[in-house]
Amino acid sequence: MLIYIEHPERPFKLHVFIGVEPTEISKRFNKYKKKKFYFPKGFFVPDHGEDEALTYDLGDALPGHFCIQFFEAPTMGTLAHEVFHVVAMHMRYVNIPLNESTEETYAYMFSWLIDKITDEIS
Q1: CA 20, CA 72: separation in Å to the nearest integer?
Q2: How far apart are CA 86 and CA 79, in angstroms?
């Protein structure tokens, strides 16, 4: 399963893969014409088999793009964990540090992504 989310006002694109073979993920990203480098077949292969999911900031190749790779349907806890990583990566990308005055910005982005992903999974 592939879920693609693009924020209407931010430089943000999220690709969520659930149960997709790593080589297929590489193929998908290699179709982008404006990427800065080629994703080798093994790029999305985990180092060990204990992970439930992996999150990537693809900014070196595709600025503003992020990826979550779930190896199977995620629990809500795993989903929240990975979405938090994506929000933190994105906020670093747009130079919004996490502090008391920006917590709400982080929280809105976090809840928006959780809603978008769970709507697609259901």
Answers
A1: 9
A2: 11
**Contact at 8 Å (CB) between 39 and 61?**
yes
The tens digit of pLDDT for each residue in 16-75 reads 999 999 999 999 999 988 778 888 888 998 887 788 999 999 998 899 999 999 999 999
Give percent helix, percent strand, percent coil of the chain, each to the nearest 5.
40, 20, 45
Whole-number CA gyration radius for the chain: 14
Residue 56 buriedness (CB in 10 A; 0-12 / 13-18 / 19+): buried
SS3 category, 117? helix
Please indicate, yes or no, whether the overall pTM of this predicted structure exceeds 0.90: yes
Strands, E, within 1-120: which ranges? Answer: 2-6, 13-18, 53-57, 65-70
Name the residue ranges covered by the structural domains of the chain.
2-121
